[in-house]
């Protein structure tokens, strides 16, 4: 039977495209020296325990997380960039991602949505460039 | 051709079950005396313009809004109550609603999720009671 | 020459109508046993130092504070109630207060504004009742 | 009779000085390719419906919006930059803008106010340079 | 060797006084029907993994959590009540708890601190009453 | 007897190491031209009145402030950088600072903690470089 770490790693990989966009592995590597356990918690708890639960599709989980980060404001912009990539890897289209941000205008106002769309535009372009490279 | 108000009213009604749970019409009525235009903006802009856009299903829009309100903390609890009802009317199951809240634990922490689940539990019970009444 | 405390007390009184609405003095009294210095800081720093500065009218200061509390979400509802009263005492009309909340819809979204308007409505009613009493 | 778009465009222009500072038109242009309707909503809803309402002066509306963005924290810094420019175009003086930020110290604490003042300083300098250019 | 659940349960108990104040067990019980795994995650991840780490004393961990909840605004008031109790059970004095809230005035402003102190006052009284009962 | 300004300046200096890391004096200097009183309020109120109170150690005060800024999200990153330096100057170890951020994962979620750890890593490196220079 798989450990939480193995289950989490497998799930995290299914949300990751190492060819395209920034990903959790780079981020965890960058903090490995000062916070070695951080990556373990992300893999075991976030991806092993939570993302592995039933009743919601991968796309719906990605949508839920994206909406939360947009709502948190660009205070979470680096994280937003990461999860726009995750959402695309989970199978959401660029149009669905933009649309989920537009849907938040009446609930968080224009400023946070504008910051999020600006970040989305940047991610879409980077992925196109990487794909063409 | 329908006006924005007519389109919005139709869309809002499709997210409303006046038999069950609290709904936007009660809320707009309560503020009609001091802010008569508020209801018009909710119907024309939020439901007429935004909820009527393409590329996302009703369920996905409800999920996106729910995630945003959970992230805003119980500062938006009265609104959260309203949109848990909206989400159920849009066709999300209780399990999907709970699951979308559980998915946010790694992104907003336990306290906001616990407050949201407490509110969801209250709404589910009220709807059962109204259904039995 | 007046002390900061005397200046602050005078300024705070100019924003207070002990006949109507809740006020800072009740609030400071309620916390006097566990946080005796809190009231001193509110009077000396908030009202003595800050509210006494130049370049903005009393109404503009009240408007700025109100907008901040609406933006903080109903997490600050008890404070919002206090400062809706302060704003009225500073000479803003009910219409101007409602209008400043409506102006925030594109910047914070409907939920926080709806919570704020609900609070404003409550305060306006209480003051009318006290006036009639 | 003017359409909401025409009314909004006229109002937005009255808050814009294309010679000085960043403005909404640049911002909407930048997102036109991925979110073509965003600009329409900003013009029709924010400026056509909301900014055009009665009972508050242009300066008071600008002050209210500025206070909200300062309170939202530097998560909205790009938006704050935009609206410091809007506030100056609406006729608020640099001193009034700084003062409205100082007034928020007791309500949001020093960090958000320091970030806001740093942004204001940057905008004031850029406008002076553009004016001298 | 202890499981994460056993370690977590032991740690959680060391922060709990079932005689006094509200506690996590009541809270988890209340949500058991709709979110049975929530309690497991709180015990295994929050208390088993995180609270069990080295380099910070129990008091310092309680202080850190308290400061975070005060900063989140009264959106987390029910949680704040829980963690004021946790902090007292961890060995912080009432004076230290009040002081940590006063220390936040320059960083979050008066409103959030006033809401937090009001909550602390309520918890202190309830515990005295329970102790006398 | 010392004035509030003298007391505050002395306290602020005890949290400052002008050799290492960014500090309040640079920050106040940068805003002196547009907000000359800001520095006075930081020294008199924040450091003179608040940091000088009893019942909490310097380390505990630094820990409380750090936790608040992490919770405010990277909206306060420039301030967070300042207070990571303040915390080190107050005698907290790098390990204790990292640990206080890890402790917040269950209360604010991974994104804000990841942003904070990234900032801490940057500050630790800068101080090492300055020390070696």
TrEMBL record, chains A, B, C, D, E, F:
<dbReference type="InterPro" id="IPR052512">
    <property type="entry name" value="4CMD/NDH-1_regulator"/>
</dbReference>
<protein>
    <recommendedName>
        <fullName>Carboxymuconolactone decarboxylase-like domain-containing protein</fullName>
    </recommendedName>
</protein>
<dbReference type="InterPro" id="IPR029032">
    <property type="entry name" value="AhpD-like"/>
</dbReference>
<feature type="domain" description="Carboxymuconolactone decarboxylase-like">
    <location>
        <begin position="36"/>
        <end position="121"/>
    </location>
</feature>
<dbReference type="GO" id="GO:0051920">
    <property type="term" value="F:peroxiredoxin activity"/>
</dbReference>
<dbReference type="Pfam" id="PF02627">
    <property type="entry name" value="CMD"/>
</dbReference>
<dbReference type="InterPro" id="IPR003779">
    <property type="entry name" value="CMD-like"/>
</dbReference>
């Amino acid at each position: 039977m798989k450990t939480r770490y193995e289950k989490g790693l497998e799930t995290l990989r299914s949300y990751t495209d190492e060819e395209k966009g920034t990903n959790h592995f780079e981020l965890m590597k960058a903090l490995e020296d000062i916070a070695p356990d951080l990556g373990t918690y992300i893999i075991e708890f976030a991806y092993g325990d939570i993302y592995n639960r039933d009743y919601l599709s991968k796309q719906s989980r990605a949508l839920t997380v994206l909406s939360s980060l947009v709502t948190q404001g660009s205070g979470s912009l680096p994280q937003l960039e990461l999860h726009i990539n995750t959402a695309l890897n989970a199978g959401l289209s660029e149009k669905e991602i933009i649309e989920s941000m537009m849907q938040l205008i009446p609930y968080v106002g224009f400023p946070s949505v504008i910051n999020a769309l600006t970040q989305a535009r940047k991610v879409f372009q980077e992925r196109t460039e990487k794909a063409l490279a």
